[in-house]
Amino acid sequence: MDHFLYRDGALYAEDVPISEIAAAVGTPFYVYSTATLLRHFKLFDDALEGTEHLVCYAMKAASNQAILKTLAQAGAGMDVVSAGEYLRAKAAGVPGDKIVFSGVGKTADEIRTALTGGIRQFNVESEPEMEVINAVALELGVIAPITVRVNPDVDAKTHAKIATGKSENKFGIPIARASEVYARAASLPGLEVIGIDVHIGSQLTELEPFEMAYTKVAELAERLRSEGHNIRRLDLGGGLGIPYTRSNDAPPLPVEYGALIKKTLGHLGCEIEIEPGRLIAGNAGLMVSKVIYVKSGEDRDFLILDGAMNDLIRPAMYEAHHDIVAVNEPMPGVEQRPYDIVGPVCESGDTFAKERNMPPLEAGDLIAFRSAGAYGAVMSSEYNTRPLIPEVLVNGDQFAVIRERPSFDEIINRDTIPSWL
Ligand SMILES: *Cc1c(COP(=O)(O)O)cnc(C)c1O
Predict the structure, then answer these.
(1) Percent of the chain whose predicted confidence (pLDDT) is above 90
(2) Cα(330) to centroid of ligand 1, in Å?
(3) Could you tell me the residue range of the domain that residue 142 belongs to?
(4) Ligand 1 centre from 277 Cα, in Å?
(5) What's the pTM?
(6) Which atom of ligand 1 lies at the shortest distance from residue 149's CA?
(7) In a domain, 69, yes or no
(8) Which of this chain's residues are annotated to bind pyridoxal 5'-phosphate (predicted)?
């Protein structure tokens, strides 16, 4: 459920007409709903009620500070994967003891940044990384709390580019080697082993892979405890999928996911962390774009938009589907027709949808990509020297620009010309 609904024939974000935002900020732009962000956070928080837990929003999904602050004020922690994300979370007011640091290749500088500013824990991804965290902690005279990310070798049954829990993936250490790695961690004086971390992939649409992974984590926790480790926190990653279309089967609900966590791991009495990103932000955001031209092709018509693959790369990168709707609600019974919906970038990959049925549209009409809140703005670029598009946050009947569109001068002046030219 989200808060982007038609009212009197026009698409709204909460109580604000999309067309009003478009008139104020120009197109294309991203718009997020506060109510939807908070609703999704609360679904997870409630799903773990009765268990000591922290929902750490995976901020790589949508990292604008206004979004972080909205969630942090509701009680969320943050899952970060770089020093930049760490500093952004701090800038948004998130305390270090609510920030967990994930990511496959943390550099010594990044580790130093987090240890200096305060960190809840590092989720360690390899033995060499563990040695570096230990060395930096000793250098700073602190102890770094860690979990080790284990790779449970389960098939997440998701798109290959976002599956992370198979033994062939680069993530974590093989669960079979966990005893050895934990023994090494326990011997390093700069580290304190506090738990286990696992994250098997993104956009999972079934509970079964989670169940297989969490069952393995439960067995591992018992084994590590018997080997003398004080396992008291389990970080279970993110990955619960969202419905990208209204027609297909809905993925499991957070409440079902929470019940599975309690069933597979509840007996251990550990504190639980989860790191949802997509489910919190995905359906809390739209990308709004304008039709520039309608071009008749030989066997199809093209809608050429002012938004492009650099603004929303998911279709080009993951063959992702986004529902696309007209901002002016189509009259009931209007005959739809198929369009290829494309951006202006010089790549055939700059195609958002092929033969998509839409109501008849004209140049100047606004359309909205649904489910664009996660892995949308954060993955955008200035390819073709197209400015990053603005982000807008709606809260009830108010809206605010939370990232401005840069001017062409700002973009161009970022280059520096060497003295010999
Ligand atoms: C990407 C990622 C997440 C979030 O995944 P979603 O599918 O957006 O919920 C959580 N944890 C880690 C370690 C990740 O890499």
Answers:
(1) 92
(2) 36
(3) 103-274
(4) 6
(5) 0.96
(6) 13
(7) no
(8) 239, 275-278, 375
Task: Kindly name the residue from 331, 346, 417, 421 that is annotated as catalytic.
Answer: 346
Interatomic CA distance for residues 202 and 208, integer angstroms: 14
Residue 310 resides in a domain: yes
Task: Give the model confidence (pLDDT) of 151-166 as tens digits.
Answer: 999 988 888 888 787 7
Question: Whose alpha carbon is nearest atom 3 of ligand 1?
Answer: 238
What are the DSSP calls for 132-154, one per residue?
A: HHHHHHHHHT--EEEEEEEE---
Which of 256, 274, 292 marks a domain boundary? Answer: 274
Residues with CB under 6 A from ligand 1: 58, 60-61, 79, 102, 199, 202, 237-239, 275-279, 374
* Average pLDDT of the chain to the nearest whole number: 96
Number of folded domains that form the chain: 2
Which CATH number goes with the domain that contains 387? 2.40.37.10
- pLDDT-wise least confident of 58-72, 136-150, 244-258, 332-346: 244-258
Q: Note the pLDDT tens digit of each residue in 26-49.
A: 999 999 999 999 999 999 999 999
> Are residues 315 and 186 both part of a single domain?
no
Cis omega before residue 28 (within 30°)? yes
Whether residues 290 and 214 share a domain: the answer is no
The response to whether 222 counts as a known ligand-binding position is no
Distances (CA, A) of 275 to 247, 278, 368: 27, 10, 28
Is 126:165 a contact under the CB 8 Å cutoff? no
Same domain, residue pair 234 and 109: yes
Distance 109 CA to ligand 1 centre (A): 23
Interior CA angle at 34 toward 83 and 46, to 5°?
Answer: 85
- Domain ends where: 251, 274, 297? 274
Same domain as 234, residue 163? yes
270 annotated active-site:
no
Ligand 1 test: best mutation among 43, 102, 169, most atoms within 8 Å of CB?
A: 102
Same domain, 195 and 131: yes
What is the CA 251 to chain-centroid distance, rounded?
17
Are residues 174 and 218 both part of a single domain? yes
Residue 277 is assigned to a ligand binding site = yes
The pLDDT, as a whole number, for residue 156 is 83
Q: Is 125 part of any domain?
A: yes
For residue range 216-234, what is the model confidence (pLDDT) as tens digits?
Answer: 999 999 999 999 999 999 9
pLDDT higher than 80, residue 248 = no
| Angstrom distance (rounded) from CA 340 to CA 317 | 17
Q: Is residue 420 part of a domain?
A: no
- Is 294 in the same domain as 264? no
Report d(CA 272, CA 47) in Å as an integer: 12
